[in-house]
């Protein structure tokens, strides 16, 4: 399945007055725009929403394509910088059996950064849950546009980065805690022929935020909770 890319940018045009707060969201696959939504919220009038899909959107000018290529490049640089810091801070990936041993013998804590619903279905015993991403909660023009972007692909539970992630971790774990960060299937810092910079994931982004905020003993669960379950290691669930 081709990967999807969502780009949200503020914009201003002659159609909208300068007092408007305007936002354009584009969802792309294989270089083609599949969905585009524009939202404005002027201070003196009701909100206006315009939507275009790939079947009705006119061809893009060369300048727009160049800007979007640059935005994709910025995202890649962003992950490269995260990876460099993870390597500099000696964040190491451990397989699920080693993670279980570290948890039992060395007082490591598994920090599960999946959504709460996934955590409750099944997680390693003793794991702590702090969501890296959470369901979109607000109803601003920005949030409505993002909801529409998800809904276009039949996803009616869109997520956003959890702005309280670090604060929530700090309430549960001090900076000296020994932490193994886990998500569903994890990414990797190991280079491959197709992915020379590895591949980012929720758990690697979470690990980056932890070391950036002073946590000193951060590890990454290779293969994530999927690999943990596949190996038949113990899991527990929480009843609603």
Automatic annotation (TrEMBL):
Transmembrane segments: none annotated. GO terms for cellular component: chloroplast. Residues 104-237 form the Rhodanese domain. Gene3D superfamilies: Rhodanese-like domain. It comes from the Eukaryota. This is Rhodanese domain-containing protein. It comes from Thlaspi arvense (Field penny-cress).
């Amino acid at each position: 399945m081709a990967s999807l890319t969502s780009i949200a940018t503020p914009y201003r045009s002659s159609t909208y007055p300068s007092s408007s707060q305007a936002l354009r969201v584009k969802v792309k696959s294989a270089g083609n725009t599949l969905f585009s939504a524009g939202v404005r919220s002027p201070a003196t009038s009701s909100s206006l929403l315009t939507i275009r899909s790939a079947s009705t959107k006119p061809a893009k000018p060369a300048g727009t394509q160049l800007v979007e290529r640059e935005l994709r490049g910025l995202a890649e640089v962003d992950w490269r910088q995260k990876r460099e810091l993870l390597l500099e801070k000696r964040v190491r990936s451990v397989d699920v059996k080693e993670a279980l041993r570290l948890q039992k013998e060395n007082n490591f804590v598994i920090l599960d950064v999946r959504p709460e619903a996934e955590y409750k279905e099944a997680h390693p015993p003793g794991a702590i849950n702090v969501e890296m991403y959470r369901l979109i909660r607000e109803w601003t023009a920005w949030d409505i546009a993002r909801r529409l972007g998800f809904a276009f692909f039949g996803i009616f539970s869109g997520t956003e980065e959890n702005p309280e992630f670090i604060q929530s971790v700090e309430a549960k774990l001090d900076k000296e805690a020994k932490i193994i960060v886990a998500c569903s299937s994890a990414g990797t810092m190991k280079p491959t022929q197709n992915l020379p910079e590895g591949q980012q994931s929720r758990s690697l982004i979470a690990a980056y935020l932890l070391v950036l905020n002073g946590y000193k003993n951060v590890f990454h669960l290779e293969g994530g909770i999927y690999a943990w379950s596949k190996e038949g290691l113990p899991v527990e669930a929480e009843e609603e």
